[in-house]
Amino acid sequence: MSVHDFTVTTADGGTESLGVHRGRHLLIVNVASKCGLTPQYEGLEALHREKKDAGLQIVGFPCNQFGGQEPGTDSEIQEFCSVNYDVTFPVYGKIDVNGDDAAPLYTYLREQAPGDFGPDNGFLFEHVSKSRPEAIGTDEVKWNFTKFLVDAEGTVVRRFEPTVTPEEIAKQLADLL
């Protein structure tokens, strides 16, 4: 099994196989428009524009599971991304990333890269420790803007916790792309 085997819902309610991205590295990100980390959209878009010709495809999945920070409809989310950050990478339909209703893609991503979320995540670790203590020490996505790097064959390579910025990821991608 690989990431390319999953079908996801598009923002307009259709479906798309992630196999359309076969041959490209993916950076899969759960996004939100009303989060303190929302400005990462700017860095994600810059990374997308800088590395797309080298084989990187960024894809976003809006999620409202963390502090209700993605309350809009798929249409409103698309408009927000376009107007505020000129996002050109695909932002798919809103999903859950944890729990009984988690999208199968995210169940797979979490199993393949459970993460290493600890005190070195600073303010976010303190926040999650207070607001979602049950998530600490599990494979759950801890907050918005968790990023999963997938290679061109669809294998999950690694997970970046939300405090890792797109700019920091760009430096690590140099050898991969």
TrEMBL record:
Key words of the record: Oxidoreductase, Peroxidase
Protein family according to the UniProt entry: Belongs to the glutathione peroxidase family.
* Database matches in PANTHER family: GLUTATHIONE PEROXIDASE (PTHR11592:SF78)
One Gene Ontology MF term: peroxidase activity
Q: Which Gene3D superfamilies match?
A: Glutaredoxin
Which Pfam families does this UniProt record tie to the protein? GSHPx
- Which superkingdom is the protein from? Bacteria
What is the name of the protein in this document?
Glutathione peroxidase
